[in-house]
Write a structure and sequence with these properties.
two-stranded antiparallel sheet; 7% strand; mainly alpha
Length: 214
């Protein structure tokens, strides 16, 4: 095997997990991959900014209860609507039995037949007003409010994460003498010196293991 292969492998191992630099002398600008930083520090930031106790205690059990509640609501509605439709059913005559099935209307009744009676309409309206269904909907609404508050917390944590990354990049740049930091979202059309320094790993380490307060 050619000796250059071993040299290339050695160099690859030397930069693995560290800031990567390609060039003859260290440049005064560097590249940083912000999505990679966010992925690496996400758990750390969430641990530092947990959900308040009232939004997190027994959350999984509340989620399971919410799913059961919605299932109960669906079953009750389905059963109620079926009872309402039974009020309108009648035995079809021979010609109706031989005819192809007609499209179904909004009331669940074949189109072209008699419109639902007042009794059927009242029954359908009564399903939505059933007290048990209303109670279950109120129970589900409490969990929906909890979910909304958790989403609001997530938005605030994301803002904290973005600010943490920006401040860490600025701090790292000042400490290491960089005049310019380019994110990976931007493209470089020309680089005369052909020097590239990726400081992503250094930023991740700085956020995960901040220096002690002065």
């Amino acid at each position: 095997m050619h000796p250059s292969f071993f040299l290339a492998a050695f160099l690859a191992l030397a930069v693995s997990g560290c800031d990567q630099f390609l060039g003859q002398s260290q440049p005064n600008w560097a590249l940083v991959n912000k999505p990679r930083i966010q992925s690496a520090i996400s758990d750390t930031i969430k641990q530092r900014n947990p959900y308040p106790a009232e939004l997190d205690n027994d959350y999984k059990s509340q989620l399971r209860e919410y799913e059961r509640t919605n299932q109960q609501i669906s079953e009750l509605k389905r059963g109620g609507m079926q009872r309402c439709m039974n009020l309108h059913t009648r035995e079809p005559n021979k010609s109706e039995r031989l005819a192809p099935p007609a499209p179904i209307s909004m009331y669940g009744i074949p189109m072209g037949t008699d419109r639902p009676t007042a009794e059927v309409k009242a029954c359908i309206e009564g399903v939505e007003k059933d007290q048990l269904i209303l109670d279950l909907k109120a129970k589900a609404a409490v969990f929906n409010e909890l979910q909304q508050r958790r989403r609001e917390h997530d938005v605030q944590v994301q803002k904290i994460m973005d600010k943490t990354i920006d401040l860490a990049i600025e701090s790292y740049a000042r400490a290491n003498g960089f005049n310019l930091i380019v994110t990976n979202e931007s493209s470089i059309a020309y680089n005369q010196s052909q020097q590239v320094l990726d400081i992503t790993s250094g930023i991740i380490k700085q956020i995960q293991n901040p220096p002690p307060a002065q």
